[in-house]
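Hi everyone, sorry if this is the wrong subforum. Our group has a chain we'd like a structural model of before ordering constructs, and none of us has done structure prediction before. Sequence below.
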Amino acid sequence: MRNPRPLCAVTACTIPNRHTDTCPDRTKCHGCLPGLAADGLKLCTHHTRCIGIDTLTIAARHRQLALALHRTGQPGERTTGGNRNPNINLNLRAAAVRRDIETLLNQLARLVCSQRGFGWPTETTTTIAERPHGFIGPMPATIRTRHTFRVPALARLVARSADWLAAHDRAGEHAAALRDLSREAHRTAFPTGVRVFELPGLNGERYLACPEKVDDSEPCPGNLWTILRRDGDRLPPQIMCNHDDEHQWPASQWLKLGRRMLQAAA
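Answer:
Right subforum, don't worry. Here is the predicted structure as tokens:
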């Protein structure tokens, strides 16, 4: 009987350690049986989850790529392009990847807002007018809300719609674009190579939750992961949050962060 469930829309999606009848060598093959899409979706559960993970990852890479914009010329660092002005020495590859991240997130955010009816992310700014000469007393504050195109805000909007994107007609294209850009951003941001580990949680939790807050009151929903760099890298190892790239701690603050986490878990 034919299985009514469609295959995952991601090209070359296979089930680990599951093989077809025509597999040439099962001892060397890691799995060649095509993966099935989840109920009501066009992607399998793994690639559906990867949409949200890759979206938040490229948002974090966007900030890290800012540190790679300047060409250092260290061994192993691959940079392309240049400028005729000898006083300007930029890594154009990092700049191009940052632009690709901004473009892709803008496209996906517009798709979500236009077809799901969601509002575009906004940010609130508070300004105080300059005090007139001779005026004594407090000046009134002006609060304005406007649309924002900041990468973290767009990434959170897209990541919350991961299941909806997995059911979209172009789900395979969206998942592949996010995965390819995530890998390209990692190679560009860390040209000398790094190791990334997700930190285990406390009190039986699988992952370590971020201790920071968002919107001044709500706890951050992100988890913590650490970046261990090779010797000689110009950037230090650090712990980062997969939800907000501004939540990060260099190695010099790890002990302070550990005491803070233990006190919160006690």
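For your construct planning: The beta strands are 14-15, 33-34, 122-128, 141-147, 194-198, 213-214, 218-219, 224-229, 238-241, 248-250. The longest strand covers residues 122-128.
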